[in-house]
Design brief:
This protein is mainly alpha-helical and 130 residues long. The protein is 88% helix and 0% strand. The chain is built from three helices and no strands. Helix 1 (3-36) runs parallel beside helix 3 (73-129).
């Protein structure tokens, strides 16, 4: 296989890999994003599309910077898949961390409010029951 075809194959893998990963995450990621966004979750679509752009650009940058396209096809595929996996992993880890932080904060706030409400109820019933 010629180096130009190996190069195109590596770029195709760099684009397809993160898109496949985000398509897999999209059914659960969109509801979580909608729940975090105000005004009916309209910003969720923006963040989802931004995630696609970040993921594809990140893996393309890795592939263009560190890819090797001259030599055996198997070596090119191995190197490209490694770069795509690393880029996709880093992007998904970044997205998960950014999405999970507000979820964790909201859960902590709800737990704190529930504890405060639970503490307020017995004190209120004790004063009215006496």
């Amino acid at each position: 296989m010629t180096p130009s075809l190996q190069f195109l194959l590596a770029l195709a893998l760099a684009a397809i890999g993160p898109v496949a990963a985000l398509r897999y995450l999209q059914p659960i990621l969109l509801p979580v994003l909608r729940a975090q966004c105000e005004e009916g979750g309209q910003g969720a679509e923006f963040w989802m599309r931004s995630a696609y752009v970040l993921a594809v650009c990140g893996t393309l940058l890795l592939t263009l910077t560190f890819g090797q396209y001259r030599g055996e096809l198997l070596h090119t595929l191995e190197r490209s898949l490694w770069l795509v996996a690393a880029g996709t992993f880093a992007t998904v880890a970044f997205i998960a961390r950014q999405v999970w932080a507000p979820v964790r904060e909201n859960r902590a706030l709800r737990r704190l409010e529930a504890e405060r409400a639970a503490r307020a109820r017995p004190a209120h019933t004790a004063t009215t029951g006496a």
